[in-house]
Amino acid sequence: MILENIDFLNEFNGVSVFVRLILALILGALLGIERERKQRPAGLRTYTLVCLGSALAAVTNEYICTIYPSADPARIPAQIVSGIGFLGAGTILVTKEHQVKGLTTAAGLWCCAAVGISVGSGFYYGAIFAGILIVVSLRVFSIVDKNFLKYNKYMNFYVEYNSKVFIRELIFYAKKSGYQILDLEITKDSSSGTYFATFQLKITNPSLRTLVLASVQELPDCIIAEEM
Question: Is 205 helix (H, G, I), strand (E, B) or coil?
């Protein structure tokens, strides 16, 4: 690639350091914009700072190696790869419906740190290719997920209801429709007497997902029913 053929960019000097940090900032911003567009917890500023900080750490490690030739050139980057987990873990949330959110954001932050390390180490084309592929995967695979949902026979539900009559009616509805109830979990709020349930429903025709949700919502004593 062009950048690798420029000698002074492969050397450790002020210009190469500046170019690496600017490139890390640009690639991190591109990744962050994609997440910002979807209103994710970690957006433009977070991704930019992660990529820029990782690049700076890699450059700093290279600087240390120029002063102390016996130093380990992979020590700081290795710590970044493992240490970025604390930030990713902070974006993962489990809602009251037992739905996990933020896994893609956490994975994106980890990849962003890897891109920053690549830029800081002077591996320009690897960082650019990876940055492009990450953006493409985040956008394209989200479309694939939505299309796959059209053919998915499994529906995950979160339900709040007033009495056990709801469960009896749910079982009756499933048997009558030829559906299968899986992974049913029930808890009760002792103060209000309200029941909470999560379960998976295997239906026969994925095109009926909207109708099935409406049918569950209309069951007796149902307060709220949502598809997770």
Answer: coil
